[in-house]
Amino acid sequence: MQSGERRTTLADVAAEAGVSVALASIVMRGAAGAGAATRQRVLDVAQRLGYQPDSRARLLRSGRTRLLGVVFDVRHPFHSDLLTGFYDAAGSAGYEVTLSAVTPRRDERTAIAGLLQDRCEALVLFSPRSRTADLATLSARMPVVAMMRTIRHRDVDVVRTDDARGSELAVDHLVGLGHRRIAHVDGGTLPGAAERRHGYQAAMRRHGLTDFVHVVPGGSGEEDGARAAAALRSGAGFGGAAPTAVTVFNDLSAAGLLDVLRRNGFDVPGDISVVGYDDSSFSRLSHIDLTTVAQDVEVLAGEAVRRAVQRIERTPVEHREVVIEPRLVVRGTSGHHVS
Amino acid sequence: MQSGERRTTLADVAAEAGVSVALASIVMRGAAGAGAATRQRVLDVAQRLGYQPDSRARLLRSGRTRLLGVVFDVRHPFHSDLLTGFYDAAGSAGYEVTLSAVTPRRDERTAIAGLLQDRCEALVLFSPRSRTADLATLSARMPVVAMMRTIRHRDVDVVRTDDARGSELAVDHLVGLGHRRIAHVDGGTLPGAAERRHGYQAAMRRHGLTDFVHVVPGGSGEEDGARAAAALRSGAGFGGAAPTAVTVFNDLSAAGLLDVLRRNGFDVPGDISVVGYDDSSFSRLSHIDLTTVAQDVEVLAGEAVRRAVQRIERTPVEHREVVIEPRLVVRGTSGHHVS
DNA sequence: CACGCCGACTAGAACGTTCTAGAGTCGGGT
DNA sequence: ACCCGACTCTAGAACGTTCTAGTCGGCGTG
Questions:
Q1: Which of A279, B216, B276, B311 could form a disulfide with B292 if both were Cys (CB 3.0 to 4.6 A apart)?
Q2: Taking the CA atoms of chain A, what radius of gyration do you get in angstroms?
Q3: 3-state SS string for chain A
Q4: Residue B322, SS3?
Q5: Sheet containing A291-294: which strands, arranged edge to edge?
Q6: CA–C1' gap, B92 and D6, in angstroms
């Protein structure tokens, strides 16, 4: 099949229906100005010939593309969730979505360049790692929305979760369960790590637990969490006493930490409570069952689309940065402190 | 920023450089037929004006898009891995990739329709669920490659893993460890489930274990595996004796099964060995550490691209169906049978 | 009956490229 | 001196749409 014949164009449909191309165009895009009978006839012919409008030609002429470009990372499960919400939000705003993936061998520059050619009207970047200056340059060409990360530049919009607040929720939860010796395994220089660390510290101070603040260097991988577990067991932070609870930079690191703890005979949450961050799909596995801080996917996606559309349509915008409230998901790895 | 001014076109560049549009075009696409000095001058001007070619116009004119459309499911982690390989393979074949995602609220039809408008030259569908007839209709319009699934239609190409062989590898591995009472938790009517079930049955027969063949109804979710675990413990299949090993339809189901087993005091792999399927990222978590059957992502992606390109360029094709050998990844959930 | 108006329809330009056909220029071989 | 080929460059059509500016009847109104 897929024969060499030219695909059917609007001209074919028009000829077959015995009308002008212009009228066929009017019918196809549902515009006013065609008689009911003619309209039906054109529609029938189009259907019969299997006519598919050529979006390239259409958009070339009309200037608009109603296309939102999204750069996401295939390695980040959270991005997949966000994508789901993004399609919904874009759809109801009357925009299409075009995707460009970052992979281990395809960097962000390449992914962005791919979208640039597609003439999308705005760029939405999931957890961008580009330098602020590069994003600023980009924003001279089209609206740019950065997600899950702070960018301090007046031409780049930001939609992110309040990560400091997320850590605070985790600490509040643990304090509510009677914990005092709460450690934090951080994410080093990774995006969001500083906010999460500061949130932890602020919450500890607020609860009068300044003396118990203990940050253990971690990272984003399982092995980072495992390493941190070893450091914790040595009990360096609390004058020899092991912490009774830990908040971790992300779920993957938390999983590594959990594993080492359990292997070493610790009962979770009996001996020690663990709270992750991200609500990754695997944290829901009953076997892991991780208490964690969830980002609100629907709202994040919705706000990003809203912001992009506002910029495209030049609607005045109230705040450059939209910060979404996180939500604590209590599962099986956190429990009452028994002294 | 993103001012209302028209974006710079080839005509602008040409005018500024004092050459014709045609020559500017020649320079921009690196074609032969421009003097070195002129070429450099045009390039400089283009750079200075921030010229970005409009792919829509370009492709409208040239007819070709060199675009491969991919439909993937955001929920399937394996698809993310495959995407990585796909970008690589397409890139080195000189093709671009355009993505359309299936999400819980965006079905395959919609995802395909989105790509159709983009005028890609071939469609590659990851684990398509569409009916064969629909795919056949589609293939009248453009080459269609289905992945990870059998399609019996002469116009639809197929690139998939030999799932029967995958199950056989799992069984061979377990038999090699001394197991005889090996059960299979299947995937019902899901794509690939029948092949995996048949592979299990064939391998059991080959090892003379026909009497021990025992298929437990399962599914793709964690809860399916959990349910199957309960059924297994009742020992229905082997005359009251519980199996010493299980092969499971996929990793997620295996994780659910593992969890229930361990919670009920079974030692894995001491009391029972478990083998999953897919090598999902979470199966690598040290906490799960699942022995599983891996699909060769690089090869799958490479073959899919090769096949799509062959169809596009009308190169004769040897086999309609390309079947890739799976690979067993031995981790911690399988061990010697101790009787 | 003339007028204006409205609805149905159309011709042709426009969008930003690529491609075809050909025009000019230069240098070298006869 | 002439021609030829190679090279550089250009004009203008073409791609499949949408949009602008109409044309053409018919009908209600004065």
A1: B276
A2: 26
A3: CCCCCCCCCHHHHHHHHCCCHHHHHHHHCCCCCCCHHHHHHHHHHHHHHCCCCCHHHHHHHHCCCCEEEEEEECCCHHHHHHHHHHHHHHHHCCCEEEEEEEECCECHHHHHHHHHHCCCCEEEEECCCCCHHHHHHHHCCCCEEEECCCCCCCCEEEEEECHHHHHHHHHHHHHHCCCCCEEEECCCCCCCHHHHHHHHHHHHHHCCCHHHCEEECCCCCHHHHHHHHHHHHCCCCECCECCCEEEECCHHHHHHHHHHHHHCCCCCCCCCEEEEECCCHHHHCCCCCCEEEECCHHHHHHHHHHHHHHHHCCCCCCCCEEEECCEEECCCCCCCCCC
A4: strand
A5: A214-216, A182-185, A245-248, A273-277, A291-294, A327-329
A6: 34
- Here the tokens at position A232 are 């914790």
Determine the Cα–Cα distance for residues B245 and B171; give it in Å rounded to an integer: 9
| The pLDDT value given to residue B238 | 64
Rounded alpha-carbon distances, angstroms, from residue A73 to A229, B44, B207: 28, 33, 44
pLDDT average per 10 residues of sequence, chain A (339 residues)? 64 93 93 90 93 86 87 90 95 91 95 85 94 92 92 94 97 96 93 93 96 93 89 68 92 91 88 93 84 96 95 86 96 89
Q: Which of B258, B278, B286, B315 to mutate to test the interface with A (most CBs of A within 10 A)?
A: B286
Q: Tell how far CA B13 is from the center of its chain.
A: 43
- CATH no. for A65-161+296-323: 3.40.50.2300
∠ at Cα B118 (A68, B96), nearest 5°? 90
Question: Are the beta carbons of A169 and A293 closer than 8 angstroms?
Answer: yes
Element (H, E) at B216: strand B214-216
What CATH code is assigned to A163-294? 3.40.50.2300
A147 DSSP β-pair partners = A126, A159
CATH number of B10-53: 1.10.260.40
Domains of chain A by residue range? 10-53, 65-161+296-323, 163-294
Between chains, do A142 and B56 touch, taking CB under 8 Å as contact? no
| Average confidence (pLDDT) over B292-303 | 96
Please tell me which of the candidates A101, A155, A226 has its beta carbon nearest to residue B99: A101
Tokens 């060995």 belong to residue: B273
Token code pair at residue A12: 């074919």
Topology agreement, domain A65-161+296-323 and domain A163-294? yes
Contact yes or no for A54 and B117 at CB 8 A: yes
Q: Superfamily assignment of B66-161+296-324 in CATH?
A: Response regulator (3.40.50.2300)
- Which pLDDT belongs to residue A206? 97
CA B19 to chain centre: 48
B99: part of which helix (H) or strand (E)?
strand B96-102
Of A52, A57, A105, the CB nearest to B116: A52
Residue that the structure tokens 């991200």 belong to? A278
